[in-house]
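Renewal narrative, Specific Aim 1. Our central claim is that a sequence can be written position by position from structural information alone. The example that follows is taken directly from our test logs and has not been curated for this report. It begins with the C-alpha coordinates describing the chain, in the order in which they were read.
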Protein backbone atom coordinates (compact mmCIF):
# COMPACT_ATOMS: atom_id res chain seq x y z
CA UNK A 1 0.00 0.00 0.00
CA UNK A 2 1.29 3.47 -0.93
CA UNK A 3 -0.04 6.41 1.06
CA UNK A 4 0.61 9.98 0.01
CA UNK A 5 -0.32 13.32 1.45
CA UNK A 6 -3.39 14.52 -0.41
CA UNK A 7 -4.82 15.25 -3.80
CA UNK A 8 -3.52 18.09 -5.91
CA UNK A 9 -5.52 19.87 -8.61
CA UNK A 10 -5.42 16.99 -11.12
CA UNK A 11 -6.32 14.42 -8.47
CA UNK A 12 -9.12 16.63 -7.14
CA UNK A 13 -10.56 16.93 -10.64
CA UNK A 14 -10.36 13.21 -11.47
CA UNK A 15 -10.92 11.65 -8.05
CA UNK A 16 -7.87 9.41 -8.55
CA UNK A 17 -4.62 9.65 -6.57
CA UNK A 18 -1.32 10.57 -8.20
CA UNK A 19 -2.46 11.41 -11.74
CA UNK A 20 -0.55 14.66 -12.23
CA UNK A 21 3.19 15.21 -12.67
CA UNK A 22 3.92 13.56 -9.32
CA UNK A 23 1.86 10.55 -10.40
CA UNK A 24 3.77 10.23 -13.64
CA UNK A 25 7.04 10.22 -11.69
CA UNK A 26 5.63 7.71 -9.18
CA UNK A 27 4.58 5.42 -12.04
CA UNK A 28 8.10 5.63 -13.54
CA UNK A 29 9.71 4.78 -10.19
CA UNK A 30 7.30 1.89 -9.65
CA UNK A 31 8.03 0.55 -13.15
CA UNK A 32 11.78 0.66 -12.46
CA UNK A 33 10.99 -1.85 -9.73
CA UNK A 34 8.76 -4.05 -11.89
CA UNK A 35 5.61 -2.70 -10.25
CA UNK A 36 2.50 -1.20 -11.80
CA UNK A 37 -0.56 0.33 -10.17
CA UNK A 38 -2.34 -3.02 -10.35
CA UNK A 39 0.21 -4.35 -7.83
CA UNK A 40 -0.36 -1.66 -5.17
CA UNK A 41 -3.21 0.24 -3.60
CA UNK A 42 -2.53 3.98 -3.68
CA UNK A 43 -4.34 6.54 -1.56
CA UNK A 44 -3.73 9.67 0.53
CA UNK A 45 -4.11 10.59 4.20
CA UNK A 46 -6.70 13.21 3.26
CA UNK A 47 -9.43 12.93 0.68
CA UNK A 48 -9.77 16.57 -0.35
CA UNK A 49 -7.26 19.01 -1.75
CA UNK A 50 -5.55 21.11 0.89
CA UNK A 51 -4.92 24.47 -0.73
CA UNK A 52 -4.62 28.18 -0.14
CA UNK A 53 -5.11 31.26 -2.29
CA UNK A 54 -2.16 33.54 -2.93
CA UNK A 55 -2.28 36.39 -5.41
CA UNK A 56 -5.34 34.97 -7.13
CA UNK A 57 -3.71 31.52 -7.53
CA UNK A 58 -4.75 28.34 -5.81
CA UNK A 59 -1.70 26.57 -4.36
CA UNK A 60 -1.39 23.14 -2.77
CA UNK A 61 -0.29 23.02 0.87
CA UNK A 62 0.31 20.37 3.50
CA UNK A 63 -2.91 19.22 5.15
CA UNK A 64 -3.65 20.67 8.57
CA UNK A 65 -3.90 18.38 11.59
CA UNK A 66 -7.67 18.96 11.76
CA UNK A 67 -8.00 17.95 8.09
CA UNK A 68 -5.98 14.79 8.71
CA UNK A 69 -8.08 13.99 11.78
CA UNK A 70 -11.29 14.48 9.81
CA UNK A 71 -10.15 11.94 7.20
CA UNK A 72 -8.69 9.41 9.65
CA UNK A 73 -11.82 7.21 9.90
CA UNK A 74 -11.89 6.88 6.09
CA UNK A 75 -8.15 6.16 5.97
CA UNK A 76 -8.34 3.58 8.77
CA UNK A 77 -11.26 1.82 7.06
CA UNK A 78 -9.32 1.74 3.79
CA UNK A 79 -6.22 0.33 5.47
CA UNK A 80 -8.34 -2.24 7.31
CA UNK A 81 -9.94 -3.33 4.04
CA UNK A 82 -6.62 -3.61 2.19
CA UNK A 83 -4.81 -5.14 5.22
CA UNK A 84 -1.33 -4.39 3.84
CA UNK A 85 1.83 -6.18 4.91
CA UNK A 86 3.83 -3.08 4.00
CA UNK A 87 2.95 0.60 3.80
CA UNK A 88 5.14 3.00 1.84
CA UNK A 89 4.49 6.55 3.04
CA UNK A 90 5.24 9.30 0.55
CA UNK A 91 6.20 12.45 2.40
CA UNK A 92 6.35 13.55 6.02
CA UNK A 93 2.61 14.16 6.58
CA UNK A 94 1.81 10.58 5.58
CA UNK A 95 4.66 9.19 7.68
CA UNK A 96 3.58 11.34 10.61
CA UNK A 97 0.17 9.72 10.51
CA UNK A 98 1.20 6.14 9.73
CA UNK A 99 4.61 5.76 11.44
CA UNK A 100 4.78 8.24 14.34
CA UNK A 101 3.67 11.85 14.93
CA UNK A 102 7.18 13.29 15.27
CA UNK A 103 8.47 11.68 12.05
CA UNK A 104 11.26 13.62 10.33
CA UNK A 105 11.66 12.70 6.67
CA UNK A 106 15.25 13.97 6.45
CA UNK A 107 16.34 11.76 9.38
CA UNK A 108 14.09 8.73 9.08
CA UNK A 109 13.47 8.25 5.36
CA UNK A 110 14.31 4.72 4.25
CA UNK A 111 14.11 3.19 7.74
CA UNK A 112 11.70 0.44 8.72
CA UNK A 113 9.12 0.86 11.45
CA UNK A 114 6.32 -1.22 12.91
CA UNK A 115 3.04 0.62 12.65
CA UNK A 116 -0.36 0.13 14.18
CA UNK A 117 -1.57 0.00 10.57
CA UNK A 118 0.83 -2.58 9.13
CA UNK A 119 3.67 -4.82 10.32
CA UNK A 120 6.15 -2.89 8.17
CA UNK A 121 6.16 0.81 7.26
CA UNK A 122 8.77 2.90 5.48
CA UNK A 123 8.75 6.48 4.22
CA UNK A 124 10.27 8.09 1.18
CA UNK A 125 10.28 11.42 -0.57
CA UNK A 126 6.98 12.53 -2.03
CA UNK A 127 7.29 12.63 -5.82
CA UNK A 128 6.28 16.32 -5.82
CA UNK A 129 9.29 17.03 -3.59
CA UNK A 130 11.55 15.19 -6.04
CA UNK A 131 10.13 17.24 -8.90
CA UNK A 132 11.04 20.48 -7.10
CA UNK A 133 14.72 19.47 -6.98
CA UNK A 134 17.21 20.33 -9.69
CA UNK A 135 20.33 18.73 -11.11
CA UNK A 136 22.17 16.37 -8.78
CA UNK A 137 19.62 16.91 -5.99
CA UNK A 138 16.87 15.75 -8.36
CA UNK A 139 18.83 12.68 -9.41
CA UNK A 140 19.73 11.79 -5.80
CA UNK A 141 16.21 12.17 -4.41
CA UNK A 142 14.72 10.29 -7.37
CA UNK A 143 17.16 7.41 -6.84
CA UNK A 144 16.31 7.36 -3.14
CA UNK A 145 12.61 7.12 -4.01
CA UNK A 146 13.33 4.26 -6.43
CA UNK A 147 15.46 2.55 -3.77
CA UNK A 148 12.80 2.91 -1.08
CA UNK A 149 10.21 1.41 -3.44
CA UNK A 150 12.64 -1.47 -4.06
CA UNK A 151 13.01 -1.97 -0.31
CA UNK A 152 9.23 -2.01 0.13
CA UNK A 153 8.88 -4.55 -2.69
CA UNK A 154 11.48 -6.83 -1.09
CA UNK A 155 9.81 -6.49 2.33
CA UNK A 156 6.48 -7.61 0.83
CA UNK A 157 8.19 -10.67 -0.66
CA UNK A 158 9.89 -11.46 2.67
CA UNK A 159 6.66 -11.00 4.64
CA UNK A 160 4.72 -13.25 2.27
CA UNK A 161 7.41 -15.95 2.51
CA UNK A 162 7.41 -15.73 6.31
CA UNK A 163 3.62 -16.05 6.41
CA UNK A 164 3.71 -19.01 4.05
CA UNK A 165 6.44 -20.72 6.09
CA UNK A 166 4.46 -20.15 9.28
CA UNK A 167 1.45 -21.88 7.70
CA UNK A 168 3.60 -24.82 6.58
CA UNK A 169 5.03 -25.13 10.11
CA UNK A 170 1.50 -25.24 11.53
CA UNK A 171 0.46 -27.92 9.02
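The sequence written for that structure reads:
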Amino acid sequence: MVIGEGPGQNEDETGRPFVGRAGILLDECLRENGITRKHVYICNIVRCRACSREGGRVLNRAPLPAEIDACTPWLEQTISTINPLVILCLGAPSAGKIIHPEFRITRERGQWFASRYAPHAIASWHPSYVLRQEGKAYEASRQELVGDIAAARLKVIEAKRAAKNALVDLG
